[in-house]
Amino acid sequence: VESGTVTGAIEAGAVPKYAALSPDEKTMLVSNWCDFDLSVIDVESGKETGRVPLGRWARGIDFAPDGTAFATAMGTPNLYRIEKGSTKAEVFATPGQRIRHVVVSPDGKYLYVVASGAYKQFETSRVVKLDAETGKVLGQVHTGNEPRSMDVSGDGTALYVVNYYSDTMSKVDTETMEEVQEVPAGHHPIGVTYDDATHKVWLANYTGSIQVFDDTATSR
């Protein structure tokens, strides 16, 4: 990180889309978009130790504090749960169509998913808040045109959502599930991560640029 140099590479499946590190930093899960599964990577050896079958267009992954993982496959309406140490994904909830991304709140109590498709009274392209124990829908919000990826602040109070076709990033209050700010991004923003140490939001645009936003307002 200090030098910005590449020190190695880990082989996963076809078109690796997203990676998540377990809380103990021993295991990494990688979603393989075209293999419809997750690679299980041993971090110390840098080797793939297994695969978790998932579904068409595997994409989003995040870990809860207890080591449970949640994952999405965009060709399905499902949010999947993978118990710690397991190589089997079970359907946990079906909060809409085309479930693209998932993040877990820092305390493990809530899940946030990006859904694209009608679900009862909800419209398309929205961020949905779920109870992490029951899968019950607790709220939802519409941000920009086609939200894709997101991350949560270290204190759990804010979501940062990139809106691919709006060329913007939205900040969402996690308690009220209201959009409190929407700021311009580059063309087709696709990746976003929150750095709790500096309270900065890093955003990657599909055209190849990276932007850094300061948000010290979320720090306690």
Description:
By secondary structure, the chain is mostly beta strands. It is globular, with a radius of gyration of 16 Å. The protein has strands spanning 16-21, 27-32, 37-42, 47-53, 58-63, 69-73, 79-82, 90-93, 99-104, 110-115, 126-131, 137-141, 147-152, 158-163, 168-173, 178-184, 189-195, 200-205, 210-214. Mean pLDDT is 92; it is low at 118-122. The protein is built from no helices and 19 strands.
Structure characteristics:
single chain, 220 residues, mainly beta, four-stranded antiparallel beta sheet, 0% helix, globular
> Helix and strand string, N-terminal first?
EEEEEEEEEEEEEEEEEEE
Distance between the termini: 26 Å
Major beta sheet summary = 4 strands, antiparallel
pLDDT averaged residue by residue: 92
The helical percent reads under 10%
Backbone structural class: mainly beta
Gyration radius, to the nearest Å? 16 Å
Count of helical regions: 0
Draw up the topology in text.
Layout: E1 16-21, E2 27-32, E3 37-42, E4 47-53, E5 58-63, E6 69-73, E7 79-82, E8 90-93, E9 99-104, E10 110-115, E11 126-131, E12 137-141, E13 147-152, E14 158-163, E15 168-173, E16 178-184, E17 189-195, E18 200-205, E19 210-214
Antiparallel strand pairs: 1-2, 2-3, 3-4, 5-6, 6-7, 7-8, 9-10, 10-11, 11-12, 13-14, 14-15, 15-16, 17-18, 18-19
